[in-house]
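Example 3.2
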Amino acid sequence: MKKIALFCLCSLASMSILAGCSGSADGNVNLGTVTLSEYKGVKINVAAPEVTDEEVDAKIQTALKQNPDLVEVDRAAQDGDTVNIDYTGKKDGETFDGGTARDQDLKLGSGTMIDGFESGLVGAKKGDTKTLDLTFPEDY
């Protein structure tokens, strides 16, 4: 009996909440007016946040990891390197929407591109042109 009463109470509460959520046709609802009391000169004491040296160091390390110094090298690209690439994706010899980019930084091995794309660039040197024959995943 208690379960039935609780169910009915929950159902009524749900219906009343949903009924109260409707607004006017144009989306504007008059919620009335508010008169502010005297607020000028009110002082609020806010405690200064306490930050530890460890928290500062952690934040600095995070910023450094997210913004590494990129140094141009004169060698073949390796896994873990960031390369700057231009690419054009084609399907049946025709370019497709969203498949072309210019001046893109890509960290090789990051897994942000489809399988075979990043590994296909390992070994490339500045100025090389590569053609990769790749297949998009079914759920892409």
